[in-house]
Amino acid sequence: MKVLVINGPNINMLGIREPAVYGSQNFQDLLKFIEQSAAEEGISVDCYQSNHEGDLVDKIQAAYGVYDGIVINPAAYTHTSVAILDALKAVAIPAVEVHISKVSEREDFRQISYAGKACVKTYAGLGFEGYRQGLLFLKEYLKK
Ligand code: DQA
Fold first, then answer.
1. What is the best residue among 30, 53, 73, 110 to mutate for testing ligand 1's pocket, by most ligand atoms within 8 Å of CB?
2. Of 21, 35, 70, 85, whose CB is crowded by the most CB atoms within 10 A?
3. 79 CA closest ligand 1 atom index
C-alpha cells in the first residue's frame, strides 16, 4: 500500500509558527513521525510539501495510478482552493484530510473546507497524531 502525504503552505514553518496553536515540534519532526508511523504499519509513504497551490495540484494529478491513498493537510488552501478540491475529485484516490489544530474552534474563515468535500475522513486538533490516524484509517479503508 502506497500513500502520499501532502502538506500545504507554512507547514514547513512548524516549530517557529504560532507554537501555541501548532506546537513546538518542527517540520523535520513531523516527517520523522509520519515515516515511523507508516513503517510500523507496513505502509510505503512519500511526503511532499509546497507553499504553492499549483504545485499541490500538480502533485495530486501525478499521484494518479501511483498511490493507493492520500493524506492531505492543505493548510490555508483548505479554506480557499476549489482547484485542490477538483484535483482530488479528478484522481479519485481515497483521501484523508488532516489539520494539526482544532479548526472548528478557530476563526469563521477557517470553517469551510473545500478539500474536505473530496475526502473520506477528517482528523483535526490531534496534532501530529492526526497524520498517523489518517494512515491507519486508509489502511482499513483500502482493505474493503
Ligand atoms: C491547518 C489549519 C489551517 O486553517 C491553517 O491555515 C494552517 C494549518 C492545521 O493544520 O491546523 O496553515 O491546516
1. 73
2. 70
3. 4
Which atom number of ligand 1 is nearest to the Cα of residue 130? 10
62, 36 in Cβ contact below 8 A?
Answer: no
Distance between CA atoms of residues 77 and 141, nearest Å: 25
C-alpha cell recorded at residue 35: 515515516
This prediction has a pTM of: 0.97
pLDDT tops 90 at residue 144 = no
What pLDDT, on a 0 to 100 scale, did the predictor assign at position 102?
97
91-97 mean pLDDT: 98
Catalytic residues: 22, 99
